Structure formats: C-alpha cells, structure tokens
Amino acid sequence: MSYDDALDAALERLHQEGRYRTFIDIERTRGQFPHAVWRRADGSERPVTVWCGNDYLGMGQHPEVLAAMHEALDATGAGSGGTRNISGTTVYHKALEAELADLHGKEEALLFTSAYIANDATLSTLPKLFPGLIIYSDALNHASMIEGIRRNGGAKRIFRHNDLDHLRELLAADDPAAPKLIAFESIYSMDGDFGPIEAICDLADEFGALTYLDEVHAVGMYGSRGAGVAERDGLMHRIDIINGTLGKAIGVHGGYIAASAKMCDAIRSYAPGFIFTTSIPPAVAAGAAASVRILKTDSARREEHQTQARILKTRLKGLGLPIIDHGSHIVPVIVGDPVHTKKLSDMLLEDYGIYVQPINFPTVPRGTERLRFTPSPVHGPREIDALVQAMDALWSHCALNRAALSA
Ligand SMILES: Cc1ncc(COP(=O)(O)O)c(C=O)c1O
Predict the structure, then answer these.
(1) What is the pLDDT of residue 222?
(2) Ligand 1 site, residue 119, Cβ cutoff 6 A
C-alpha cells in the first residue's frame, strides 16, 4: 500500500465511523461576540450567534485585555523568540506567573503553551521526580492528562468516575510506602459535573498522596477571585498542583500549573514539554495577566454568567428537553444518537443562524450524543429566546422525545 493509499484508508475509516471532523469557518468582529459570520465553503456568508465558544466570560473582547496586548505588541514585537531558557522569558511572562500564583494562593506558577501541554508535560514528568510514583486517575479525565500519564512509564490506576469507594480500594491495595498522586478535574466539561474535591483531599491525606487538580473549566468562573472550584470550596491549600488554562474564561491563550516553588522549579527543570518549546508571545502573556487581574475583582461578571446558564437550563427544561444539570455553567442537551445530533447542529446553523457543534462518540459515550451550549454574560435575552425557540421547533421537527433527565 502506498503512503497516499494509507492516508486515504485512515481518513475513510473516520468517515465510515462518522468521526471525520470538518471545520466551520466562523469569523468574529471585535466587540460583536457572540455574533459572528459563518463563511460557507462556496464563499457565501451567514450571520450566526456562537453558542459553543469557551471564551465563557467574553474576556477575549474585553477592551483592557486588548489594550494590554496592543501595548505589549508595540513594545516587544510579535513572538517571544525562544524557549523560556533561551531568550523566551520576559517581564510579561514573569508578571503573569506572579498573577497566577497569587490567584491560586501558591508560591509559584509555571506557564506552558496550552493547558493540554501543561497537563501532558507535568504528568509525564512527575515519575522522574518521585521514583515509583503511582498515579490514580479519574476515568473521565481529559485526554491531555491521559496522554501524560500514559507516556510517563510509571504505574497508573484508573478509578471509576467520581467513585470514592473505588479510589479508596485502589489506594489501599498499593504499597503504603509508595509515592502516590491523585489526578482529577474540578468540572468535567461534557456533563458539567463537579469532582468531589474535599473527599479526594481527605483520601489523599489518609494515604499520603499528592493531589493534582485540573481547573480548566472553572478558572475565572468560580470562587470569589475566579481561582476555580477549589477556591469556592475553601480547598485551594489542599491541592498540591493546580492546572489551568488561559484560553477559556481568561479569553486569551496558554496554560499553566500553580504549585510550591520547589515543585514548579522541578517541573521547569525536567519537563521536555516546558524546556524544548518556544514560550507564549509577550503580548499574549500581557493580555492574559490583564484578564486574570480584572477577573479577581469582577465577581458581577461571574454571577451574570451563572445566571445566564441557569436561565437557559430552566427554559430548555421547560420545553421538556433532556438537559444534564449538575449546577455548573455547562448546558448539555442529550440527543442520543449521532445522526440527529448532526442534523440538529446543521439545521440550527443553516436555518436559524445558531452555531453549536455536535458532540459524538468517542468524546461522549454512545447513546449520549449531545449539543453542548456555553452561555456567557454577552448572550442576552434576545439570543436566549432565539435559541430556545429554535430548539423547540427542531425537536418537534425531528420528532425527538421530550423527557426530563435526572442529573
Ligand atoms: C479538562 C481540560 N483540561 C485541559 C484542556 C486543554 O486546555 P487548552 O485548550 O488550554 O489546551 C481542556 C480543553 O478543552 C480541558 O477540557
């Protein structure tokens, strides 16, 4: 088989399984979000409202964030010009790390090019620091954590999602003297359910394990200063390593960990995913630092975000649509098969100008294919009304069941 034939076969497999992904070309205009323009393949345009963005708080359009980026861009130029060790460290990177360490109440923070890389690089490096380390990983952890754990060559145990009894059983079965780390998330983004942070910290204390918490879907949105669910629940001091993104609620780009100075120093010194890659541009660091700083005091924006999510869930539930509701900001509507999920997504876009991507297997289990809406403070009553009316009409059009789901 030629290389070309092999590529054809690999792509065909995805088409056959209904897993081939096509990009939807969405063009934004500064200050217009969530309104944007969809450019079709033939070049024609359609105005759309974006309902699946992860710029949860609209910070990517915040004038102070944009001003900070412009200022740094004008002062320093486009790129960082190197890895952090070789000319890629600037005052902007250091200021952002200080801002993040302060946010999470940790001694230090360490920037990565994304939260994916932060998870992968940190989790793949930890066994080099703690020989014999056993990592206990929630079954629904993000792909970036799974990849890091898979590649690290150390021992791993997968506990059933949020199942404390199973986690305890696994911890108890291992050598009490072995170094251990429990890796989990504060909000699991597909169902929007919360990780049992306090109970996991209790188990970590009991079994002498470190805790690693991915707060990617919570940073900026939960806690009095936007540090995440651990802050909201008064548990930040019990987490050894916090992972966060600058690309979702912070509205810019990049990722980080926050931890003790020694932990950050060791990861900085050992992790190839930190050492051998160009650092984020200074302008990106400046924008992210401005955003983090603003969100530390802008609790009104957080409250508005939660209110919009509650309103949307209540309205969709009022139509009898199967919503998963764990009380977070994520609004998953379960359609239950890939064909209807795709059809709904296509019709919402073409007929109603509403952009939401279908979420299918393997991202979610078969039979739970869904549309996942992400409201923000800039989705007003007009946008919510339009979405609710469209969902009502399309649900009837596709003759889908109207049955409430329990959380
Ligand atoms: C739980 C979780 N962790 C990490 C990431 C990676 O974040 P980033 O987009 O900054 O790479 C994601 C991305 O969606 C995520 O959902």
Answers:
(1) 98
(2) yes
Domains of the chain, first to last: 3-56+301-406 (3.90.1150.10), 63-296 (3.40.640.10)
CB-CB contact of 201 with 233 (8 Å):
no
Low-confidence ranges of the chain (pLDDT < 50): 406
H-helix segments, 78-114: 91-104
The question of whether 248 is a catalytic residue gets the answer: yes
State pLDDT tens for residues 95-109: 999 999 999 999 999
Contacts of 13 (CB under 8 A, 6+ apart): none
| Ligand 1 centroid from CA 282, angstroms | 21
Cβ atoms of residues 191 and 334 within 8 Å: no
pLDDT for position 18: 74
pLDDT tens, residue by residue, 370-389: 999 999 999 999 999 999 99
Cβ–ligand 1 distance for 144 under 6 Å, the answer yes
HEC letters along 204-258: HHHHCEEEEEECCCCCCCCCCCCCCHHHHCCCHHHCCEEEEECCCCCCCCCEEEE
pLDDT of residue 96: 98
